[in-house]
Amino acid sequence: MSELQISRKHTGQANRGHAGSQSERACRGKTRSNGGARGALTILWGQYVSAGPPDSRAALRRQLIEAYAPLARYVVDRMNIKPGPALGYDDLLSQALVGLIDAVDRFDPGRGIKFETYAYHRIRGAVMDMLRDMDWLPRSVRQRESDVASAYSRLQGSFGRAPSDQQLADALSITVEEFDSIAHDLALQSMQSLDEAISGSRDLHGWEEATLADSVPDDRAVSPQEHVERQAERDLLAKAIDALPDSERTVISLYYHEGLTLKEIGRVLGVTESRACQIHGKALIRLRAHITPMLVVPAAKKQ
Asked: What are the pLDDT digits (tens) for 250-280?
């Protein structure tokens, strides 16, 4: 079992059944609850630092990670990040544990800084780095978003109403055209991947979560009823073609299936283009006479 899995298991056990302010107390239970625990951790740190080669420190390193694992959940809860379909709470916790492990590896007890203080910033930084990596908008756009939101709030408080685009542009020292460009860039952040899973949903087979693509209608798709009707029409047409005389059936096949011109069909049959055109016309007359009654009667019955 990896260190990350052990830490996640330990974190879940230490915090099961706790919420809100209880989560904070639970996360401190291993690291700050009393002087005895503090003393034990101090001894553990001393053993870890003086252990020597990494191989000999592995067990002590794991003990430290397990001891401070609740701190990872505490930091995630304090960040108050709302999980979404593309980012769950477990993802945040996993990244927080990665930050915790990095903090254990980098911490120097000799500097006189509490590990909790040092690890808090390392864990928070690891989670923030993951969020930035997942954010496909440039940081410059995010900064502009913050500037626009700040200006909007400030002007709304001053005017007692929503500011106009011109007023926002003036407050940001830009033109209205530049403000429109910023608004366009910010609108892109609302785009979602069609492969993104819909939380709590299942596909048609009930085995896995459906995606947004499954909920988007395809106007070009053929409905089951239309598919059945078209198949019936094709079957009807095929029977009508089979009932044609050989010469007419050959012309229909060469013209519509092979894509030959009437002139080329005349050469194949050894007749003139005009004669091939006549044969084609007769074939169409026979097909219409055979198919039309069968198509009109069902329609009349529906009415």
From this structure: 999 999 988 899 999 999 999 999 999 999 9
